[in-house]
Amino acid sequence: MTPRTEVAVAMLHQNNRWLLQLRDDVEGIIAPGCWGLFGGHLEAGESAEVGLRRELLEEINLRASHLTPWFTHHNRKRLLHVFVGPLPVAVESLNLMEGQDLTLASMGQIQRGRIYSRQLNENRALAGCLKLVVQQLRSNLPFDRHLNPIKEAGG
């Protein structure tokens, strides 16, 4: 039996919007050309948080200040760890080193299932991982009030 792959991703928020990555259009990767969350595969012996911090440095040169575990999801092939936290810098200061584009998107935009890429000048679909997060939000999975950007805006 093939061992389960472990993955950690981050829902980083700023001003009531979430940071998304448009994945490369490369054959052989998960969800090519779709919008997803920054993060990736864990290395052997790496905790989910350590692996996520490494991935954020590799993908956007970000040292995330606060990452809080939100939920995990598993199937036969993958164990997914989802973290939430604030995006502590302006999106323009991020250095995109993996993927085709990045954007800050509102929850309404994400829930519509397609997001516009300024780099490609077209709408692209959501990756399965991001769809799973939207499903969790719709199912009212407990979500700390101080981490929910929709509730932050209302005070």
Would you kindly provide a brief summary of this structure?
The chain is α+β, with helices and mostly antiparallel strands and 155 residues long. The protein has helices at residues 48-60, 107-112, 128-138, 149-154, and strands at 5-14, 17-22, 35-36, 38-41, 68-74, 78-86, 101-105, 114-117, 122-125.
Give me the secondary-structure topology.
Elements: E1 5-14, E2 17-22, E3 35-36, E4 38-41, H1 48-60, E5 68-74, E6 78-86, E7 101-105, H2 107-112, E8 114-117, E9 122-125, H3 128-138, H4 149-154
Parallel strand pairs: 1-6
Antiparallel strand pairs: 1-2, 1-4, 2-3, 2-7, 5-6, 8-9
**Radius of gyration based on Cα positions:** 15 Å
Average pLDDT over all residues? 88
Report, as a whole number of angstroms, the end-to-end distance: 49 Å
Structural class: alpha+beta
Largest sheet: 7 strands, mixed
| Dominant shape | globular
Helix run count? 4
**Could you spell the SSE succession in H and E letters?**
EEEEHEEEHEEHH
Fold and architecture overview:
The protein has 155 residues and is an alpha+beta fold. 23% of the residues lie in helices and 33% in strands. It has four helices and nine strands. The protein has helices at 48-60, 107-112, 128-138, 149-154, and strands spanning 5-14, 17-22, 35-36, 38-41, 68-74, 78-86, 101-105, 114-117, 122-125. The chain starts with a strand and ends with a helix. Residues 144-155 have low confidence and may be disordered.
